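Q: What would this chain look like folded?
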Amino acid sequence: MNRETVVTQALDLLDEVGLEDVSTRRLAKRLGVEQPSLYYHFRTKKDLLAAMAAAAMAPHTTAPLPTPEDDWREWFLENSRSLRRTLLQRRDGARLHAGSAPTGDLDRIRRKMHFLVASGVPEKAAQMAMLAASRYTVGCVLEEQADTGQTEDLPADVPALDHEAAFEAGLDLVLGGLLQHAAPTDSTLHPEPER
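A: My prediction, written as structure tokens:
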């Protein structure tokens, strides 16, 4: 048994029982070991949850970084979509991720920020927009993962919520706010006519 095996099994347990029911006792039983042996790899449950959150975020934290040729607006949207997809891959993924520190991702975050600033977005606006988009995305996924799908209490004229459409609409508003602070580009100086 090694640290990676413990985290993998803990994430599988998360998918089976949900975050509320993940315990070191259950995990030890799953691994066929005594509970104290887990403390060799993780001193506390909080340490285990942090390692689980980092591993669960791998699809997002290993996605390609932006290049100078990328359109920053499209990249900004896709970065948030990537975070959403990653959070949705695990049961209670947003709850697991919420409050975790991006310690292993700081260099990537700096490179993303550098890309936005080099694309004409003021540094402070870029920082606040990245933070707002991240928190917005986590909040959307929290709501989506908590949705039981029960609509019997809603009036008949209220449609069921399309989580992806709602997410995209809000994300467009975040980008629209950021565009107010960014240096104009050719497409913002000469927008395409409406069809």
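The first helix runs from residue 3 to 17.
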